[in-house]
Amino acid sequence: MPEEGTVERWAWDYVVSDVLAHKLAPPPPPVRWEATPTSRRLDAPGRPPELVIATKRTKTPKPAALVRPDKRAELLHVFFHHELQAAELLLRAALLFAEEDLAFRRGLVRIARDEIRHMALYVAHLAKLGYAVGDFPVRDWFWERVPSANDPASFVALLGVGFEGANLDHTRRFAQAFRDAGDEEGAALQDRVGDEEIAHVRFAATWLERFTGRPVSLEAWMAALPSPITPLVLRGQPLDRERRRRAGLDDAFLDALEAWSPS
Length: 263
Prior knowledge:
Blueprint: H1 7-16, H2 20-24, H3 69-96, H4 102-128, H5 152-180, H6 184-196, H7 198-212, H8 218-224, H9 241-246, H10 251-259
Helix pairs in contact: 1-3, 3-4, 4-6, 5-6, 5-7
């Protein structure tokens, strides 16, 4: 277990905590990092009792269903849980890849704190709709896949360029769906989260290039993805090309991503 009073211990405590209040609002991290960091692997997160894991696959509400407040709340709960898993997995990576550049690990912690802040925004809007964390079951979908990324290049390829890149597309689409349902505040929330995650994708793309020594092309990105993950689950329809360009992904990458199909 990491030493008390270090960022590593703060990250460890967050991932393993089974207290909802701690997941929603952890204390600020310490300033001090371990002088001689040690790689630590966490294979599962702590889960508060309020979060009930679904025993079977649940379908994400369709945009047309969002005219119903309960369906908007159900979708916001999914987004909240995505942010929670992202925060946990980023902090897990900061512990696992302890021998990497401190700038990289600091970036992981910074982005995790953004995800925690996004969680609070989703919880607040859930409350305005009359719902709370735990009113819907959850799936640890990211935890079932991201730990297969066993090196830092694979991790940033999957979580950052992959899942967060796709969220640039999804938030734009769902913002319009919330707007069409008359929930302007929910739409603005989606727009805000999507805009703020541009920097997360840019961070991942920058480090992917550093780790691989290759420009971020579709071929280089796919080579870094852990099998059997493919672009099929790492893009929305349509691509938000404007946001993805701002994240540092060029038109050649975007054209190839849009055109890719399973062989």
